[in-house]
Amino acid sequence: MKTALIEYKGKPAGVLKETDEGYEFLYDKEYLSDAESKPVSLTLPLTEKPYKSPVLFPFFDGLIPEGWLLDVALRNTDISELDRFSLLLLCCKDCIGAVSVIPLKEEGDE
Question: Residue 78: which domain range?
Answer without folding.
Answer: 3-104
